[in-house]
Fold this sequence. Notes:
The structure holds 2 protein chains of 2 kinds.
Chain A: H1 2-19, H2 27-34, H3 45-50, H4 80-88, H5 97-101, H6 108-116, H7 118-124, H8 134-138, H9 159-167, H10 170-175, H11 182-187, H12 190-196, H13 205-209, H14 227-235, H15 243-246, H16 256-293
Chain B: E1 8-10, H1 14-38, H2 44-51, H3 54-85, H4 97-110, H5 125-149, H6 151-155, H7 163-195, H8 205-208, E2 210-212, H9 213-219, H10 221-228
Antiparallel strand pairs in B: 1-2
Helix pairs in contact in B: 1-2, 1-3, 3-5, 5-7, 9-10
Amino acid sequence: MRFRLNVLFLLLFTFLLVTTxxxxxxxxxxxxCHGSMEGAVNVNKDKYAKSVxxxxxxxxxHMAPKGAQHAGxxxxxxxxxxxxxxxxxxxxxxxxxxxxxxxxxxxxxxVEAYKxxxxxxxxxxxxxxxxxxxxxxxxxxxYIEKRPSMASKVYLxxxxxxxxxxxxxxxxxxxxxxxxxxxERYKESFHGRKLKLGHSGxxxxxxxxxxxxxxxxKDASSPVGSIENKKKTCGKCHxxxxxxxxxxxxxxxLHPIAHFTEIALIILTVxxxxxxxxxxxxxxxxxxxxxxxxxxxxHHE
Amino acid sequence: xxxNIPLEIQRFxxxxxxxxxxxxxxxxxxxxxxxxxxYAFVEPSSAWINVWGxxxxxxxxxxxxxxxxxxxxxxxxxxxxxxxxKKDLRLTIIPMPQDVVNMIHQFMYYFGLRKERPYYGxxxxxxxxxxWAVYWGMFIIGTSGFFLAFPVTVSALFPTWTLPxxxxxxxxxxSDEALLAIVFIxxxxxxNEHLRSEYFPMNWxxxxxxxxxxxxxxxxxxxxxxxxxxxxxxxx
Lengths: 301, 236
């Protein structure tokens, strides 16, 4: 009943808005409908207000909402940079490309870096839908939070998971011939473990590979693309990093020697474990036996 | 002949007892802090590491404890040298063929094939194993731990062809052998010195250094006979 009343009220309200076209384009206007709608069009009012862009009007990014129900709700005309970026992102087949490109309005430097990155190049030059756009890493656009917060998808402690959304996906790793164990090998490394435990000095993926301007590791301009760059990158934490030192981290599957060392040590551990547990159990049984049948054991004369 | 048989026998002098206390304190600290890193992806680990002051502090504690343990181990070698100098060192801790015989006898005793426990000397084969396990651990875990603590410096020592696996091997050695040490201590040492009905809640030897003579005669008959002569043991 209440839902129906809401719908009725909102329809009336929309009608009122349409008749007074262009009067109010603040977020409250949009949220009066989208705040209670269900599905993908829903925007959580509180989460939006809390987000870093919470004070924006919806039309700041959704400059030209489509459909009759939005008639009269328009933002500023998109400028050249937004139009260009929206056109560049066309391979992604986004619902509102202008809104996805709107980031460039305030973050031109980040977008510029992104355009040159392996991620950006894959979308813009190779016209592939695989490369991420801003929201693939930063999360749902309405709820983007500032970085030093666990709610941010690109926060030090969350970014590994965000990268893993694609780099752990089989069809992506196969298509682009990534080492399928990249994420796993990172996670079981000292770096990955320390980061997992909350060590603020531990490196995430972005700490070494870069973020908006990320390059393929085969690209010599990547911070880990050449020995010289690696020495600089590793040297940020490990001062005096040498050629030999930077060879330590490859994210490649475990080398056979290491693999068989591990197996040998596991056999040793399990073998020792079996032996001592048998020994202890036999000792307990013998102790009980002696107490029951040999009158208090053989050491109280 | 009956020599003067004391009521208690000194098994460990003060220095040995202090070495043992340092050894087990650092061992426990190393296990507790290392465990959190080894199982970082098992959920309670972050909370557990926070008990130790967070990953940064836990790492520092782990390194300090490691260095203390190494120093304790090195000190022990000088302690042995000093005993040798005073001609006080008997090689009773060296594994001998007799230990294999003793082990077979021990198992025969367990299965009821022998009435008596083996004729043990100053140290049983399990005690010898326990002692030399520390050397094994010091070599494997100590070396790898020292390497892992100074990666930049140590990498210069490695030949290039070892680099693709050296660090993984060091890491595996450090963490798997530590697990082996923990499992061993937790089962054998805790059972033998804490849980056994005759010692529970613990064998106070680690504090007093002394063992009642009856217990000593029961557990180390060969050593008893060596010290007081076979004849002193009337029931034999």
